[in-house]
Write a structure and sequence with these properties.
Helix content is 0%, strand content 57%. With 119 residues, the protein is mainly beta.
């Protein structure tokens, strides 16, 4: 079983910064993608950014240039550095791990961490 534990959310003023962390534990294969999704009230969950185990990154257009995703494979940890935060970034942020070492591929999710941006 794979478990994901997020940390780093909180309240910040517009223009501020936060860094989210997510540690994965359990039986994790090397073929995986780790990422961050977010869900605002009344909206669908959306991809923020993800990163392959090889380091290839992908970002939502709304966060390009402001958010940076990175990972430490040795620690099974993924980070999301967020700068120039906007009120529209307010959401619950979920860590995701896509297990590509199994068939069919499976998604694992963290419990979520709240990010609130005040204007």
């Amino acid at each position: 079983q794979v478990q994901l534990v997020e940390s780093g959310g909180g309240l910040v003023q517009a223009g501020g910064s936060l860094r989210l962390s997510c540690v994965a534990s359990g039986s994790i294969g090397s073929a995986n993608v780790m990422g961050w999704y977010r869900q605002a009230p009344g909206k669908q969950r959306e991809l923020v950014a993800d990163i392959t185990n090889g380091g290839r990154t992908n970002y939502a257009d709304s966060v390009k240039g402001r958010f940076t995703i990175s990972r430490d494979n040795a620690k099974n940890t993924v980070y999301l550095q967020m700068i120039s935060l906007k009120p529209d970034d307010k959401a619950v942020y979920y860590c995701n791990l896509k297990g590509l070492w199994i068939f069919p591929p499976r998604d694992y999710w963290g419990q979520g961490t709240q990010v609130t941006v005040s204007s």
